[in-house]
Amino acid sequence: MYAKKIILCLLLFSGFGYAEAVPQRPAHWATKIELSGVPNLYKITDNLYRSRQPSADGFKLLKQLGIKTVINLRTLHSDAKKIQDSGILNEELSVKTWHIEDEDVITVLRILRKHENGPFLDQIEPVLCQPCTEL
To answer: pTM score, two decimals?
Structure first.
């Protein structure tokens, strides 16, 4: 179970909201992308990006960037209203990063296996993910 938590954290949450606090990241870790309305946006792979919560205009710009699905892992917030006019699929999971369940890991992996719905953007509230960034 502990290994699954580590895998989920590494896949989805590494560095959320803490990019400025880390003095230097290896260049191969991720590529920072400046996009208006999308704070802390990084390209992790060609099919996976991560950011903080985008604005409504930010979602439209993400669509232009090629993002097809947003995986919202934030427990207390919904993007439904902001994302509805963007043409992006919205997957809201409400993952409790302080108590990740096996089913959370399985659900995220099932979403990511649907390659036709990618590229994907993962987002989470950074304060909630502090244990993940300390691994």
So the answer is: 0.71
